[in-house]
Amino acid sequence: MKDLQEYYNMVEEIISSFGVDPAACRTQTTGQWDLRKGSAPVWIDVWKLQDQDYGYIQMLSPIMEVPVDNQHLFTKELLETNHNLYGVAFTIKEKWCYLKMIRELEGLDKSEALAMFNRIGNYADDFDDKLKARYGQGGGGRG
Description:
Elements: H1 4-17, H2 22-25, E1 32-37, E2 40-48, E3 55-65, H3 71-82, E4 89-93, E5 96-104, H4 110-135
Antiparallel strand pairs: 1-2, 2-3, 3-5, 4-5
């Protein structure tokens, strides 16, 4: 596997290609960036497991809090929507709904990383508005 810094550089080159300063997107944790695609926050994480020679890239978008009312309809809609998505999936962790994709770093090239950015950003920007309109509002920040 390449050195993590090479993957960090790849992520920052892609962020720059969107006309955004990658330094402004870095979090306090090395290997994490926060940006937006339209109305949707998009979080990028690149990490290697300690004492291992492999790592991951994850892109995650907090869509909304899971609604208290109509939870069964909400989760059913997410599962049915997952069936039609390409390479991403809705997940629920604690009280939040996320759109998520993850893959191993090994073999990742810039064109695939860019496709990941575009896919998660476009889906998140589309579905956050639709789901919030149908089930209620909510905004997410990194915990």
